[in-house]
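Cytochrome c oxidase subunit 3, Paenibacillus polysaccharolyticus. Tokens?
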Amino acid sequence: MTTSHAEPVNGKLPHEPEKATLEGRNKLIGFWLFLGGETVLFGTLFATFLALRGQTNDGPTANELFHLPLVAAATFILLVSSLTSVFAIQAMHKGNRNSLALWLGITVVLGLGFLGLEIYEFYEYVKHKEFGMTTSAFSSAFYTLVGFHGAHVAFGIVWIGIIIGQLFKKGLTVVTAPKVYVSAMYWHFIDVVWVFIFTVVYLLGKVG
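Tokens:
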């Protein structure tokens, strides 16, 4: 008698439970296709920003506007959150639900910290530097690109929060494991996108 890969063996999960079932593998393939579409979308926003970044309409320029220490702090927080999501996947592969939930929770907290700094940054621009969405073509492109990424971070926070709830309700199984893995992939993706934003928008903006 053979044992189905869809069920734990002797109460234990497979080493890579996210790939233990056909449904789980299909979720991973589908999500890679989704990330391909997201990459094209962000690529379009980057191209638009690069085309419009010099059109300030007598408003603040990037060099006058950006405060790199604040953005660097936000970048550090988001990169650390990517590391904690790696620790979460390692805990999942060891079958440790509590450790998995802990690392996912830390990832959520760090994501909230990043989002808080971004909201504060936008507030400072609008309140003290009169840099709003409609100030110039540059401001519109900036808020669209960076704000769209922030919306992805907010979605990821909610998504991972829901998954943590499912882990305590349903346990760590070959059904919940693919959801954890896919959410971690998503989180890494938005971290990589932010590295490009930090480089293209902020660093290049400060050096002209």
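Residues 126 and 132 are 5 Å apart (CA to CA).
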